[in-house]
Design goal:
Length: about 210
Amino acid sequence: MKLFLDTANQAEVEEAVKMGVISGVTTNPSLVAKEGGDYLERVTYFCNLVGGPISVEVLSTDAAGMLQEARELAKLHENIVIKLPITAESLGVIKQLREEGIKTNATLCFSANQAILAARAGATYVSPFVGRLNDIGQDGMVLIEEIRTIYRNFGYNTEIIVASIRNPRQVTEAALIGADIATIPFKVLQQMLNHPQTDLGIAKFEADWANRK
Ligand code: G3P
């Protein structure tokens, strides 16, 4: 399973790239709004630094506006992926962008049927939001299982990005189900890495070495 970083923060992307474990970045308007500066400049920087797909979301809600924004964003860099919420307006845009060779990420996916529509429209990626489903008392991972099964049944090649991840256990579960990608906040990347037994083990090795005969 590939790991993307779910952030618009430059320091976090730089740190994760240094670790060598992320192959893409996903942003959304809320994440971009938290950061200052020129976000188009920053996502272009991410495209070069990460060398993989960088999702940037359109803000228009009508098809013509989405298409225009998508074409402008796609001109920034070949690694730009256009993120669009799954709506009646966006499906045709996703199809059109595929014909133009522009990659898309169908986002705000909360049902298997929405994921089928995204795949039928030709989305490169679909982003089901597990954390927000859990927030409303559903099991987000059941949705990932359903989408994985359906895509396998019909050979849809849209890649599943498990999004809205809030804790490291969800990364493990996404991998067990066979999701293509987990997009994770920087904090979850740190939680995946850290283990108290690793710290204790290092401290013991150091102490034993210092006391060697
Ligand atoms: O990738 C989508 C993600 O950013 C949403 O996460 O925690 O706001 O539900 P969250």
